[in-house]
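Feature request disguised as a bug report, sorry. It would help if multi-protein outputs had a clear separator. Right now it looks like this:
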Amino acid sequence: MAQSKGFFGLRKGSTKSLTFSTLDGKQITKDRVYEVKNPRTESQMRQRMLMTTVGAAYKMLKSIADHSFEGYSSGMQCMRQFNSRNLNRFKQAAAAKGSVAFNEYKDGDINPLPFILASGSLPGFVFSFDGESNLQIVGEKEDADFATAEGIYAALGVQRNDLITFCTVIGEGTTLNGVYSYKAERFNIVRLYCDKSGAVTKPADAFTISTNNDQASISMSTAGNAITIKTGEADFGAVIQSRKNDSGWLRSDAVMIVNDTVIAGVKTANQLDTYPVGTELILNNGPMANQGDAGAAEPKPGVSPLTYTVPYGGTKQIGISNPNSEAVTCTVKTGTEYCSVTNAGLITNTNSSGSDASATIEVAIGSTKFTVNVTLEKDNSGLE
């Protein structure tokens, strides 16, 4: 891969031998690849599992993750930080085959993992789940003053104009045949803006509170020298501290924590087994339309065609295929006055109504049944 600057500016697209793209305002030139090998080795599938897991997480967490890494511009740079840091974080776990809830094959929904959600120089918070699965932070200071905004900020270790952002995911996890899947219902964001001063009646009065949806909630309480701030029920989440200075926005480190009850019994090996390791070729035991279905290859009974026209006084033989020599029964279901049929499938036209008539015949081959539609022509012998 080479970086270059073309005479006509930055280029995108391909020529016969080269591919052009841009990255951070620079021209990237690579040899054009026409054929991509896809051996689907276990190592390759582990990497695909990692990329699927991290990609699905970024899609869900993008409203935070696209600007949560201090020192990197919002958008593409922060996305690359989220992806690269989390791919490196979970690479060893994927190889170890422990109990990490990686995404199963082709699963595009976020799974509960301790993703790196933010990074920066601020001290941040220690956050945890309480006994009711609420994400919480606890601030404590000797001789704490919870009657003023300044006293509350001091107990929490924040400054005026800081932001405290609770980020949580709630959903439902299920395990089927040993494979875990998770369906996220909501990504809840609650932001506390530390913009008040002076006396407050209750802790919440020290903040301007904003949420991203009507179901995101926050509660605050004090006891002794401690203040507790907690969200509603969550499966995994993190709390981020933000502060603006002369050079831009500062963040705190924030790695999501996972409620253990949500991922109980997860086996990484079972998640990896859903990926098609080395099985795309038929002669290498690759997938087929009727994979593992022995009955699909067995000969099956049939009737063809399913429609017949029988001249007056004549006969027609139903095309019956009975490869397994099962019992055959043919029965006229409608139009019994116009025709008869033998169990061998021979139809006889007995129509004397003076006009064409129709009938249906049921052909039962063992337990399999077919319906045959028959047109019985009228007697045309008297026509000149």
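(second protein starts here, but nothing in the output says so)
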Amino acid sequence: MSPHDILYHKIKKIHNNNGDTMSNIKRYNIFILLSTLARNVVEVFSSVLLYKMGYSLKEILLFFTILYLTGAITSIISIYLIKIIKPKYILILSSIIFSGSFYYMSIMDKTFTNLIIFSIIYGLGAYTYHTIRHYYAIKSINNHERKEIGSILIYTNIAIVLSSVIGTYVETKLSKLILAIIVIIISVLAVIPIFKYEDKTNNNKIKIDKIEKNKLLFFICEQAKVINLSLQPLYLYLFINNTISYVGIFNIIMGISSCIFIYFFVRKVDDKKYFKYLNILFCIILILKLNISNKYLVLIIALFEGLGIKIFEIVSSENIYSIKEDTNIKGYLLIVEIIFCMIRSIMCLIGYFINDIKIILYLTIVLIFIISFIKRDNKV
């Protein structure tokens, strides 16, 4: 068969699906844009909202501990549900639960029991989403294409910028009930693009494969970045400027700088060659942020943090999605999500006993720094 014939058959295959020319990665990008927008409208401010309700740092860290424990259990349930329910329907259920969790937060009194209930509902809504999100990402990315991973991160950051703008407005102008309705509508709309995915592997057995040592170590240490980002809004609120709008502006600047970096430099920077040095620089930026109190200088830090966090997340995404062709995807995601959630839960529990947000953030930076020296082998 000639090259022209091969090209013809490939084009024909693309157009075959009822005239649908949209690739899976494009569908996934629209899904990730809308779903991230819906969830981040309130998710990015969750620690600050709990603090404003009167909860202490220890109680907020306990909230995250229970949230991630719930996430570990929910991830297991979600993976096994894929065997009997199409993932797209699990996402719709996730949207309803997630929206309900924030409505519950808006009406709950400040009690320890309510905090526990909220963390469990939130965990159910969040991790029925995250597990399925990774499932679709792996099915969408062709041969570990760096360009496709970059496009996912661009759409994610566009959503983060938009959600920070909307979230800042909503928190000051609209009721929490209206917010919950907005979240559920956008979340359900987000599922529409992936309704044309073919899920032919639903009945496959779930097989747990061993994860490479270096990849496992990377997974463990990178959860420090998640904890750092989860506590960052609260740190900004407590030590820099105690307004929701300032937290939103910080995230907007960070998101815009991330998009610029990914769009212009993601294919030009050799992360295998330079990641060590860029990540060390990222750690220095995080340390500077903890030692500057001027709110305008901190916004300049946000610009550079946005660049650093995206370098990190590109490598992190490559580490997650670089799997062998014969890997059992469901089994792989099952063990990955359990590792993620359990490590985060342990970190938050340690933070609960430390009870000092600056010390906790410094400890997360140490783990992020260690990642600089972990060897990676991202062959698919």
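Even a blank line would do. Unrelated, but nice: The two ends are 27 Å apart (CA to CA).
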